[in-house]
Amino acid sequence: xxxxxxxxxxxxxxxxxxxxxxxxxxxxxxxxxxxxxxxxxxxxxxxxxxxxxxxxxxxxxxxxxxxxxxxxxxxxxxxxxxxxxxxxxxxxxxxxxxxxxxxxxxxxxxxxxxxxxxxxxxxxxxxxxxxxxxxxxxxxxxxxxxxxxxxxxxxxxxxxxxxxxxxxxxxxxxxxxxxxxxxxxxxxxxxxxxxxxxxxxxxxxxxxxxxxxxxxxxxxxxxxxxxxxxxxxxxxxxxxxxxxxxxxxxxxxxxxxxxxxxxxxxxxxxxxxxxxxxxxxxxxxxxxxxxxxxxxxxxxxxxxxxxxxxxxxxxxxxxxxxxxxxxxxxxxxxxxxxxxxxxxxxxxxxxxxxxxxxxxxxxxxxxxxxxxxxxxxxxxxxxxxxxxxxxxxxxxxxxxxxxxxxxxxxxxxxxxxxxxxxxxxxxxxxxxxxxxxxxxxxxxxxxxxxxxxxxxxxxxxxxxxxxxxxxxxxxxxxxxxxxxxxxxxxxxxxxxxxxxxxxxxxxxxxxxxxxxxxxxxxxxxxxxxxxxxxxxxxxxxxxxxxxxxxxxxxxxxxxxxxxxxxxxxxxxxxxxxxxxxxxxxxxxxxxxxxxxxxxxxxxxxxxxxxxxxxxxxxxxxxxxxxxxxxxxxxxxxxxxxxxxxxxxxxxxxxxxxxxxxxxxxxxxxxxxxxxxxxxxxxxxxxxxxxxxxxxxxxxxxxxxxxxxxxxxxxxxxxxxxxxxxxxxxxxxxxxxxxxxxxxxxxxxxxxxxxxxxxxx
Length: 760
What we know:
This protein is α/β, with parallel strands linked by helices. Helix content is 45%, strand content 15%.
C-alpha cells in the first residue's frame, strides 16, 4: 500500500550533519549559560535555556550572514523599504531553514528539553500592524531562499503594537514591550549610524542654478542607529539582513542645552525626539500625533536613503550610477517619502541638476501600493517637520510629467507620490512563504512531500502535481485527519487565549484581520447571528464555529464595540440550549503569527471581507496554502485568489465597484427580511443592547455591511453545504493551485521584471 496512507513517511532519514552539529550546538549552549548568564544546565530556567539555544543558533546564522555579504559584495541588490514588519518567532524558523532542528533537538535533550519546549517560550516583538499576514518579511525570506541580493529597511520600535486582552468581552490594550538590547537576533551596528535632519526652515536666499528652491537651514539632527536582523533563506546558503533603525537624539545638540543648566529641558527634548521609534502607529487624531506619524515615515525613508548611498559610495561609483548597485522597492504609503528624500539628497547634497536627479530617482525606484488606508499628511505638518521636502513636493505636483496630483484638499497623498516617483508600480498580493505555511500545519508538509517529493520547498509550482491526486480516497482521508488534528489544536489555543473553546467537529469559519475601519468583520458576526436565528426556527444547517481574531485601533471606539459585540454573541450562543453545538462564535485575542498559523490550518472557510481598495486579505492567501476555501468580497486579494484557484478555492460575493471615493453605489438591503431580523436583534436581541451599532448600520453604513450581508450569507451557506460532500478534494485542489500565489513566485518575478537582479 502506498505510504500516502501513513501518518509518517515510510523512511526517516537522519540528516548527514546531525551528528556533527549536535556537539557544536551543545558546546555553544553550555558556554552561553556559563559565561553570559552565569548558570549551569541543571540550574537554568526555561527562559535561560531559550536564550542559550537562540544564541547558539545565532552564531551559526551570523557566520553565513558574513559569507553572504562577501559573496554578494559587488552585486546589485534591492533595498526593500517598509515601516513595519511582522517578524514572528525566529528560533524555530531559523533552525528549520538551516536544517538544524534535529541537531538542536538532540542538544537540548541532553538537558531534558526539546526544541518545541523552548521555542514555544519565544515572544516575538510586536513590530507590525497587527496583521501577521503582512507579506513584507516573507518576501525577504523568499529572496534569500533564491539567492537574490536584498536588504530590508524598517524601524526598530521599543514598544510594539499593544497586547490585546479581553476584560468582560471588551478590548483592553496592554503595552507590548520587548528587550531589544538583549535580543539574540538583533545585531547593533553603531558604527554605521546615520544622521537625519528635521524641522528648521528654508532660507530666503535665491536658489542655486537648477534647484527648485532655497536650501534647508537651522535643522535639528536625529541619529538613526541600525540593528540588523538576519533573514535566513531555506537551506541556509544565503542570509540577508533586515536593517531596523532606532531614533536617538544627537548628543552634541543635547550638550548645548546643558550649558545654561537646563538639564530637565534637555532630557525632555531628547525624549521627544527619540519617541519616533518608541511606538508603532501612534494615534494621529491630534496635531502632535500626525507630526509623529510623519516623523516616523520620514525617519525611515531618510535612514534607508542614507544607508543605500553610503553603500554605493563605498564601491567608488558616481551617484549617477546608483542603478548599478541598488533598486529601491517602496512598500506601502509610509515608504513613499523615499522619493522626495532621495531627490532632495541628490539635489542638495550631491548637487545634481533637478532633471538629472529625477532621472536617477525614477530609474531605481519601484512602488508597491497596499490596500491599507493611510491618512494624508497635511501641509502644516510637512512645513514644520520637513520644510525642504514640501518645496520639492510642490515642484513635483506642478510638473507636467506627474501622472496624478500629489496634493488633494491641501494634504499630501503618499500613494500618489510613490506612483509618481517609480518606474514600476505593482500591487503585490499579500502572500506568505510556502515553507512557513506548510511547516506549521501538523504534518501537511509531510503529506505533500510524500505525494510529490521535496522539490515544492524551493519550487512551489510543483504543488500542481497534487491536483490529479485530489480524487484518491486515501489522500483525502489523510488530509481530513490532518485538518481534524488542526481543529483540535485550535480549540485548545482558543481555550488558552479566550477561556472558551468550541466543538472541533464543527466546520470552522475564520476571519483574521484588523477590526479597525472599515468595520467589515461585522459581516461575519451578523452571519453567525443569522445562522443562529435560523437554527432556532428549525433550519438544520451545518454545525459551525466562527473564529474571529484581530485588533481594533486604540483610538477606534467602533472597532472596539464590534469586538464587544463578538464576545456578547459568543456568550449568548453558549448559554442557549437550542444553539449549543450548532453555532458557536469565538473571538480570540492577540492575533499574531503563531495564532494565524493555527487559524489557517484549521479553517474550512476563510473570509476576505473588505471592500476594494481597503482589503486586509493576507490571511486568505495564507489559508489557501492549507486548502481553506475563501469566501470573499470582490476586493483585489479575493479576485486574484479566484484567478489562481478557481471556483474550487474561492467564492465571490458583492459587486466589483461598490465605492467610488466616498459615494456609495448600492443601498442597504432593507427589503430582505433576514437582514431586518438580524439588524433588529442588535437593538433588542438576547445578547445585549447594541443599538449604537444598529444606528450606525442603518444611518451611516458607508462600508456596505448590510448591502453585502445577504450575498455573503448565501455564498457561505452554499460553500458549507458542499463541504461534507467534496471538501477534502476541493481543499487538495486549492492547495495544488496555490503555488503561484506565494512569496517565492512574487520574489522571482519581481527580481526578473522589476529589479533585474542576478542570483549569487
